[in-house]
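Reproducibility note. Readers wishing to regenerate the assembly model reported in the main text can use the exact inputs given here. Chain order matters: entities are listed in the order in which they were concatenated for prediction.
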Amino acid sequence: MRSNYHEELSSVLDRLHEMAGLVEVAMVEASSSLLHPDLDQAERVISSDARLDELHEELEFKCLSLLALQAPVAGELRTIVSTIRVVFELARMGDLSAHVAKIARLRYPDHAVVSDLEPNFKRMAEVCIEMIDLAAASLRDRDAKSALRMAQIDTEMDTLRSEHFDVILAGGWQGTTEQAVDAALLGRYFERFADHAVAVARRVIYIITGDTPEGIDWPNA
Amino acid sequence: MRSNYHEELSSVLDRLHEMAGLVEVAMVEASSSLLHPDLDQAERVISSDARLDELHEELEFKCLSLLALQAPVAGELRTIVSTIRVVFELARMGDLSAHVAKIARLRYPDHAVVSDLEPNFKRMAEVCIEMIDLAAASLRDRDAKSALRMAQIDTEMDTLRSEHFDVILAGGWQGTTEQAVDAALLGRYFERFADHAVAVARRVIYIITGDTPEGIDWPNA
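Running the prediction on these inputs yields the following structure tokens for the assembly.
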């Protein structure tokens, strides 16, 4: 019975790793379609999101079956509930990637991001991709090290968000109102993606180590 | 053992009802501080959010204990996992109310919402408050009827969001870029609040009836 539990959990973690990989692809393609307007690529991100929603349902059900069939004990319970939470967070990260792609599609063939903000958004996207990549690495290697590095990276997101507000709201804004609104919403989507990534990291560390790391200044996610 | 489970679950549902009540107060005060600039009120919403985060932790732990001690069977399992999800969604709704209050605080003593958009935001706030009120009523009465009415109301949110984008992005926008950006972000917060309310309603209906209603065109939340 116990060995069954560990095998089943391990197969769920493999599927979580797969799901994190799909989220990474979604964010890579969404930000690319945004920064180098590409309608097909944007459409691909939007239509692929259904696959993540399916995985969400499937893995939530799998975790419930594990709870029902294996009657896990206290620590195992928290592991499975954490897993359900990670599945949920990853699905939201997929939704946010699709939101980015929808703005790219809406403005195509124009650039949704004005050239003044391009370096800022390019870096925001890189940080998001790096974060989901660290989460995926922790799931693949069953090693918390990668996920632990995430708290550091996330602080850069806050700086990037302040910087782009400075550009939009400074007196000298050269873009249109529409471009300012797009930038504010896109910034929010990237920021939320990062928040969810941090939440994933915390739970993945718990799943792998059975412990919540102290002494790390995790942002509130 | 079984009667214990039902008593424990009932006490968790009472606490969920209490939590929903606090979220309702947060949204009532946040939108009031936004539409009638009031610094104290905005501060109160922001500082009260910590109480919702505490309740989140406390109720999640309570649900885990219920899982661990009562070894619930299949349907009960899904009920408890749904409860954990409702707790999470309510906490997010509290965060979003605090986000609204933060914009009110940032612009105080000015109005963050330009007068052209006031009726739109007033109605958005009313819809949000009505939605959380329906969820709370279902939890209080242990009756799905109120929660079932939510799908209808939520469609009005989409219309309201389109309407305010029409105002912001139409050629004749009279406000500043800052006001447009505030409006876009505020609209997003109200919209997300409503999305979470719909997610709460779906789970509350399940918790109360043991069934997910078919034939209702729930928005994707």
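We highlight two features of this model. Chain B has seven helices and no strands. Chain B has one domain: 2-209.
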